[in-house]
């Protein structure tokens, strides 16, 4: 054990540091629920304590890995035996909700769901939403620039952060805690820490931008017989909903079959259509929004885009429909399982998935590969879960999935980030010059390479 562990214990107290069996009891990753290998897990309670820990580790030359809700999907918080894990699990204060500025000031360890609920209690909305809302923290969301179910309308986490405080690898505190929306005073410093997966600083506090809470919500699960119908209908809803369209989630038949088979979820629609679209609008006029939404559905049916549909008539029915889309844990029943989170232009998606399937089947003819496609289609974001060959085939499968994206100017990561898993494929999406800039920024802020080493670049 490095002596810095005792120094941290003496400065922050016993409750702030876990070692030995207490560390092993913690997860390695989202899937492996125990056996964490970190030298120690440090749990500061304030920004000043985070700064002290970072300074001590910096002076001692000990690497630090930030870890939060551990719901990340690319190995961004993997930690080794010579590294200290830093967790903000004791920094969970919601410090202020400002109803005039429509902002919420939080410590970075607050779970996403707690932020959503606190906003709702004030008649406001924090629009970031994703399946892991109960465990993921706002610090993790900011570090990964999380996307989720409402990007179409409200943007990604980046768009929801007005102010931010972070601690640099050398222990210096950077405060960019502004509530203001407009601030054209040079480099937007907070962006350095958004989506950079804890490689440039520890996010300790943030000022979040809230929105008025919707006063009505309409949700439908629609079945479509062609991809053209799916995309035409997206254009129609965007134009006709007057900006109310908040989610446009698409599930290919394979996804729907898997999630509604064997009694997992009761299929609300027959299991015979090639595409299922979960459409949600959020509006401000409960008197008229439902009727307007139903009129849009009728129009979509007249156009022949919708073959069959089930409209949520209550919050319970709405939750039921969303469960089918959110229950991605069930994909873990596939083995081996390879999961992907890519971006490409929406019109290319159908051909891309069909080509990928054909290439996988040619390479692994028996047993036939399982190809499960679904995603935040309205954002050009496709999730693909694949099962074929053996676990050792992952690099070959990765090549087939990522290879074609360069030609589309697509992205190897739409929202989950790079972490360690996607590092070898970063150059498919980013140019040499872009990667050189990333390295230069990292070297400027963390010359010794002690913060979350080995991630992204
Ligand atoms: C069921 C499920 C559904 C999901 N759906 C979505 C989705 O729709 N959209 C989406 O974008 N993601 C999704 N994810 C991925 C995941 O939830 C997000 O990446 C989330 O933002 C991670 O938050 P976390 O608190 O769990 O962070 P962790 O997983 O603990 O860490 C993630 C990364 O952030 C860094 N980090 C954590 N805290 C800090 C901090 N305070 N300062 C600096 N760096 C830090 C870590 O080092 C790591 O690199 C999903 C995951 C699951 C399991």
Q: What's the CATH class of the largest domain, please?
A: Alpha Beta
| Bound compounds | flavin-adenine dinucleotide
Sum up the overall morphology in one term: globular
Q: Order of strands across the widest beta sheet?
A: 15-12-14-13-17-18-16
Structural class: alpha+beta
Q: What is the helix content? A: 25-40%
User: How many domain regions?
Assistant: 4
Going by CATH, the architecture of the largest domain would be: 2-Layer Sandwich
Number of helices: 16
Which value, in Å, is the CA radius of gyration?
A: 23 Å
> What's the number of extended β-strand segments?
18
> Percent of residues in beta strands?
15-25%
Major β-sheet, in short? 7 strands, antiparallel
Low-confidence stretches: none
Model description:
With 457 residues, this protein is of the alpha+beta class. The protein has four domains: 3-87, Uridine Diphospho-n-acetylenolpyruvylglucosamine Reductase, domain 2 (2-Layer Sandwich); 94-212, Uridine Diphospho-n-acetylenolpyruvylglucosamine Reductase, domain 3; 216-328, Alpha-Beta Plaits (2-Layer Sandwich); 334-416, Alpha-Beta Plaits (2-Layer Sandwich). It contains 16 helices and 18 strands. It has helices at residues 3-12, 21-24, 47-60, 112-121, 138-144, 151-154, 157-160, 227-240, 253-259, 289-302, 315-326, 349-363, 394-402, 405-408, 426-429, 432-445, and strands at residues 17-18, 40-42, 64-67, 84-87, 94-98, 103-107, 124-125, 161-167, 173-176, 202-209, 211-212, 216-224, 245-252, 275-283, 308-311, 338-343, 370-375, 381-387. The strands form four sheets. It has a seven-stranded antiparallel sheet, with helices on both faces. Strands 5-6-10-8-9 form a five-stranded antiparallel sheet. Helix 1 (3-12) runs antiparallel to helix 3. The longest helix is centred in the last third of the chain and has 15 residues, at 349-363. The model has no long low-confidence stretch (mean pLDDT 97). The site of flavin-adenine dinucleotide has 36 residues, from strand 3, helix 5 and strand 10. Flavin-adenine dinucleotide (FAD) binds at residues 30, 65-73, 76-77, 88, 108, 130-132, 136-137, 139-141, 143-144, 146-148, 197-198, 202-203, 328, 415-416, 419, 452.
């Amino acid at each position: 054990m490095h002596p810095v562990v005792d120094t941290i214990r003496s400065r922050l107290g016993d409750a702030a540091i876990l070692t030995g069996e207490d560390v092993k009891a913690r997860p390695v990753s989202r899937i492996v629920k125990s056996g964490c290998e970190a030298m120690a897990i440090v749990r500061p309670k304030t920004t000043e304590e985070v700064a002290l820990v970072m300074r001590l580790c910096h002076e001692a030359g000990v690497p630090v890995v930030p870890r939060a809700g551990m719901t990340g999907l690319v190995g961004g918080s993997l930690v080794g035996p010579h590294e200290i894990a830093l967790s903000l699990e004791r920094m969970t204060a919601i410090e202020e909700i400002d109803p005039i500025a429509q902002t919420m000031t939080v410590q970075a360890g607050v779970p996403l769901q707690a932020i959503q609920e606190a906003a709702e209690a004030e008649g406001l909305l924090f629009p970031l939403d994703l399946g892991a809302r109960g465990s993921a923290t706002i610090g993790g969301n900011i570090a990964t620039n999380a996307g989720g179910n409402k990007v179409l309308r409200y943007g990604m986490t980046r768009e929801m952060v007005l102010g931010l405080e972070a601690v640099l690898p050398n222990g210096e505190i950077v405060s960019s805690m502004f509530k203001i929306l407009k601030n054209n005073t040079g480099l937007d410093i907070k962006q350095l820490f958004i989506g950079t997966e804890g490689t440039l600083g520890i996010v300790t506090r943030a000022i979040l931008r809230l929105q008025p809470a919707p006063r009505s919500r309409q949700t439908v699960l629609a079945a479509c017989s062609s991809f053209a119908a799916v995309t035409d209908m997206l254009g129609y809803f965007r134009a006709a909903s007057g900006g109310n369209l908040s989610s446009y989630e698409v599930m290919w038949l394979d996804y729907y079959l898997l999630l509604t088979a064997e009694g997992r979820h009761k299929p609300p629609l027959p299991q015979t259509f090639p595409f299922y679209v979960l459409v949600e609008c959020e509006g401000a006029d409960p008197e008229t929004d439902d009727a307007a939404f139903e009129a849009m559905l009728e129009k979509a049916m007249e156009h022949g885009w919708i073959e069959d549909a089930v409209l949520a008539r209550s919050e319970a029915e709405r939750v039921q429909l969303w469960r089918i889309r959110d229950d991605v844990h069930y994909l873990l029943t596939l083995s081996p399982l390879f999961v992907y989170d890519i971006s490409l232009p929406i019109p290319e998606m159908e051909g891309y998935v069909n080509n990928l399937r054909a290439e996988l089947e040619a390479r692994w003819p028996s047993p036939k590969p399982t190809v499960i496609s679904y995603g935040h289609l309205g954002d050009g974001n496709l999730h693909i879960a694949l099962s074929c060959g053996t676990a050792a085939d992952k690099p070959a499968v990765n090549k087939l999935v990522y290879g074609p994206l360069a030609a589309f100017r697509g992205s190897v990561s739409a929202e989950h980030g790079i972490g360690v898993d996607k590092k070898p494929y970063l150059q498919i999406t980013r140019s040499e010059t872009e990667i050189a800039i990333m390295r230069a920024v990292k070297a400027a802020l963390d010359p010794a390479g002690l913060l979350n080493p080995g991630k992204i670049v």
